[in-house]
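User: Structure tokens for this complex, please. No commentary.
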Amino acid sequence: MSSRHAQLAEQFNADEARTNWHDQTLWWVRQKRDRAANTLPEWEQLRQWASDIKDHTLSNLHAYLLEFEKNALANGVFVHWAKDAEEHNRIIYDILQKAGVDRIVKSKSMLTEECHLNPYLQKKGIDVVDTDLGERIVQFREEAPSHIVLPAIHLKKEDVSDTFHEHLGTEKGNNDPQYLTHAARLHLREKFIQSDIAITGVNFAIAETGGIVVCTNEGNADMGAHAARVHIACMGFEKIIPKAEHLGVFTRLLARSATGQPITTYTSHFHRPAPGKEMHIVLVDNGRSRQLGREDFRNSLKCIRCAACFNTCPVYRRSGGHSYHTAVAGPIGSILNPNLDMKANADLPFASTLCGSCSNVCPVKINIHEQLWKWRQVISAEGLTDPSKKMGMKLMAWVLARPAVYRFAGKAARWVTANLPFLVKNKTWNPWFKQREMPEAPKQSFQEWYKKQQRS
Amino acid sequence: MSSRNQILEAIKNAQPAIKPLPVLDYTVVTPIKELISSFEQFVKAVGGRVQLVDQSAALAQEIENARLEGKLILNRLNGLSSMDEISPDLTELEKLDRVYIRGSLGVAENGAIWVSETSMGNRILPFIAQELVLVLREEELVPTMHDAYQHIRINQEGFGVFIAGPSKTADIEQSLVIGAHGPVALTVLILKSGLAVPV
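Assistant:
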């Protein structure tokens, strides 16, 4: 079980050119983030404010949720509470049934992915159309999103062209992104207009006003929510912030961290349903209260889902989102998912080099790499690590505790790498060699070099 | 016990001792001196166009010209040209070539414009039209999002939105395409300071 990420990454790495493209493209997004962040001299202060606001909110969440509920109800919004994924899905199905609706449009919501809402509704005969372009592409292909901000980043335009040719009747072999996007625009505008119910996610929920904020670039959340008679917004309860003023901090950080844009195209503030319409908010726990009680992992709930940690992660960039086999991939997913199901996700905290780049770019200062390391300890204590990994670690500890053995092992490894390279460059005996080049063996160890320096 | 109470109870038991809410001292925020040039730069950067209007008759004239060209225009600017009714039929709205709407505030650091529900007339209007034109007065520019949230009351109306540029996506190989689901173009008309236009 705990080598699942490695196995799935191996499949992704089979196409070397594509892996390189994926790696470089996400690094380019990371660089755009850096440029945007560097234009603001107060960037670090903004991160600190965002972190402190979220820390405060988590420490007073009970009161803020009550305040939010009271104000949302006063705004004429229906408020629902779901303790788990199953209840979240049932609440939504009930709203659909009451409205007599069998087709809906949905904008991006990682929570509904986490709850597996689409398959649940489809089994009940509901037609669900994902309206974010990237999500529509992967939905046609019956795949999961591979990135929380760029859902189809694992695909090339040729793949999209084939998919649209099959589902939307676009010209075969026409790979022009402009042409393909236009085809999706026509297709989805029809869906927006026909749909009576729209589901959206939530980026921020404001306790003092009882309203929600949704951020998109495409305008799909707004097209859906305003065309429909009923708008359902789904959120994990950690999306609460205390005051409207705090939106100034978070809107300055979110898009710059995500894509390097100064702000998303649309930052939509929903407070009351339009005349004659209905608005629902579903507040979901699904393991979040458990995470809130874990002192070491609590502050993972500060996440604003910008995906900066994905784009910077050397492991994510080279292994692809699907290798994380969960709704939220990347470093943040690797500290959230063990809380949802420790056994099934025991591999994820190990899918990291612990380089700490994720923590450095995080706009709300989550200590992601430290939590990865702490999850490894919890998972090992629970006996959920791979036996071969456990053996390897024990052997390594034994060697590292014995300087003479360590020196001999180093010398032996250098000699073998230099003289019998076939023993090292062998995928069966040396799993490290899979998808990697082996380095040249140095002529001497650091210790040997250091001793020589002292003599001369 | 209801799910609501179970969740609230679990949160009460799990949340740590109270931590202080930070006081946001905005003096650390870098000031923007040239509001209009920064705003213009960012509207362009996010894919929009900026046009300065310095003659009071120019705006009404532009709308009339567009109508004469045979374009399907919907004007929501009060007191200018003639204000149009909004059809409740979405398939009609979907055909609109261009919509003119009054923005209430522009943000110099990112080119975003706050649009209130009242000025839209119908919430879907700024999203469904093929082209969007937003009108602002030069005096309505503020430096950053911090200033913006000091000026607006987000719950004054049922809905309000910051719009920065036309709708866009880069979901296919990170190639930027303007015109995802919303407008394919955004023009911001800025009325020069002191101009006597009744909008």
